[in-house]
Amino acid sequence: MDSGLICVSLFTSEGVGIWIASILTLAIYSFLYRDNPIYRFSESLLIGISVGFLLVTTFDTTLLPKAFEPVGKGIIGISESGGINSFAIFVWILIPVVLGFLMFTRFVPRYAWMSRVALALYIGFGAGASIPANMQSYILRQIDATIRPFLNIDSFWSLVNALIVLVGLISTLFYFFFSKEQKGAFGKITRLGTFYLMIFFGATFGYTVMARISLLIGRLTFLMKDWLGLIS
Amino acid sequence: MSIWEKAKTIDRRIIFLFMFLGVALPLLIRIGLPVSVTNDVKKVYDYIEGLEPGSIVLVSYDHDTGTLPEMLPMSDAILRHLFRNNIKVIGMALRAEGTGIGRQNIRRSGAEFGKIEGEDFVFLGFRPEITAAILGLGTSFERVFPKDDEGIPIRELPMMKDINNYGDIEMVISITDDDTPVYWVNYANARFKVKVVAGLTAVMATTFFPFIDSGQMVGMVAGLKGAAEYEKLIEKRGRAGRGMDAQSIAHLVMIGFIIIGNIAFIMRKRGK
Question: Domain check: are B147 and B255 in the same one?
Fold first, then answer.
């Protein structure tokens, strides 16, 4: 950055990028005043570039090396050697590629049913992989983490801590039991569960506010440091 | 109209203006408010500090550009710590936009410590379908990433010659703005017993506290605050440390508006 200038020079490759980013940042923030065409243009630009980038990256790093190149090599292998082995390898590569392309049949209503074959496999894999994993991570390990501290009580406060967690778990689970009316002793427990949930929501909201302000800090730092040169 | 009635109808743009000033002024005038280190961040630092030089750590960039202000400072701080301790880094991305971000970050931090690409760090690129990618790495890195980001077969990279799967690395650090660490915990930690650390946006922090308590994650660095804590631990003040003054003042502005709003509400209720 030239020290004599207030803003970063526009006439460098880095400078052009910083100017474009700064103007687009201000265009997005113009929404804080009121909705306007400049804001909508910038928003559309962001969405378009993000989707374009995703498509190009996916094609370049996945479709090309994982689908097109292996299929191409498979065809060459068959045409050169012509053996049963080459053909078997080619079919092995071709099956997932064909299943992948079947997903695109959803765009043609007449053949949309074909995509169900690929979807069924995809859902089957997803459910098969995730159900035991989630059971392990979200249920078994969490129950373990709730009970285990009671086996390692080394001070009064560790006992208090373990009890707070245990009571919170049980009362919150009770809150989500909807087959019984929440009144009487049961209602009191569910009310306690509500307090635990409120604390969780409060903490989450606090973190959310912090995150949003962090993003504002990031953009203002960029504008004031990289663009305007106000921060050393 | 009483002052409390006016408070009810205050133009939201006035609040935005105060918020802007609350963030911009501390960036221009340094206050130097203290940053205390939390246990979850210290656990990450201690674990990395305990690794032998030459150990391998996988850093996955699982976020988009929208959250870069939160992600970049923590990525810089963690990478500086890794490279300073001569730990080798494998970079990758499970989100397309993370590709460019991760590549740039690792190269910049590596260059800062004189590290050589291919020997001290590599960047493997992007893979879609998170579950399949994470499970695949447990079997073979080469099967998931036959080539690195530059198109070089990973077996030709000196650093990758003896790395086959999670058994050859010390830990996974997922820098993310969503629940991707759940996948790392579910598939890499639960199945392959690899240590997992999350570098998260603050929004996601509360989701992951239970995973630290249960030992499924080593620790986490959450938001700009977490990054500032990490910068303090490595004694290298960066973007996050600079932003902490602004963060605190902005919070005070917001608390002020919440108090004013509530007083206005009570006073109007009494007036009726």
Answer: no
Task: List chain B residues with CB under 8 Å of A32.
Answer: 13, 16
Using an 8 Å CB-CB cutoff, list chain B residues near A208: 202-203
Top residue of B65, B103, B214 to mutate, by most chain A CBs within 10 Å, is B214
A62–B64 C-beta distance less than 8 A? no
Residue B16 domain boundaries: 3-30+247-271
Q: What pLDDT, in 10s, does the model give residues B146-199?
A: 889 888 999 999 999 999 999 999 999 999 999 999 999 999 999 999 999 999
Tell which residue, B74, B43, B84, has the closest CA to residue B231: B74
- Facing B203 at nearest CB: one of A33, A207, A219: A207
From chain A, the residues in CB contact with B29 under 8 A are: none
Is B242 domain-assigned? no
CATH number for the domain harbouring residue B98: 3.40.50.450
Give the distance from residue A180's alpha carbon to the nearest chain B alpha carbon, in angstroms.
Answer: 28
Q: Count how many domains chain B has.
A: 2
pLDDT at position A4 over 70: no
- For B144, the closest chain A residue by CA position comes to A66
CB contact under 8 A, B127 and A61: yes
Residue for token digits 């280190």?
B37
Write out chain B residues lying below 8 Å of A65, CB-based.
Answer: 146-147
- Cα A39–chain centre separation: 25
**pLDDT tens for residues A42-98?**
999 999 998 998 899 888 888 888 888 888 888 888 887 767 777 888 888 889 889
DSSP B147: B
Q: Are B182 and B78 within one domain?
A: yes
Check residue B47 and give left, alpha or beta (phi > 0: left; psi -120 to 50: alpha): alpha
- Of the candidates B126, B139, B128, the residue with the CA atom closest to the CA atom of residue B191: B139
B94 and B220 in one domain? yes
B130 belongs to a structural domain: yes
Do B211 and B80 lie in a common domain?
yes
CB within 8 Å of A170: residues ≥ 6 apart: A189
Q: For the residues A103-123, what does the mean pLDDT come to?
A: 91
Residue B251 lies in a domain: yes
B153 and B63 inside one domain: yes
Whether residue A4 contacts residue A225, with contact meaning beta carbons closer than 8 Å, is answered with no
Helix B130-139 / helix A115-134 crossing angle, nearest 10 deg: 70
| Same structural domain, B86 and B205 | yes
pLDDT band at A201 (very low <50, low <70, confident <90, very high): very high
Q: What residues pair up with B153 in beta bridges, in sequence order? A: B147
B258 is a domain residue: yes
**Do residues B162 and B192 both lie within one domain?**
yes
Please enumerate in sequence order all residues whose Cβ is within 8 A of that of B9, keeping only pairs 6 or more positions apart, or say none.
Answer: none
Let me know whether B72 and B170 are in one domain.
Answer: yes
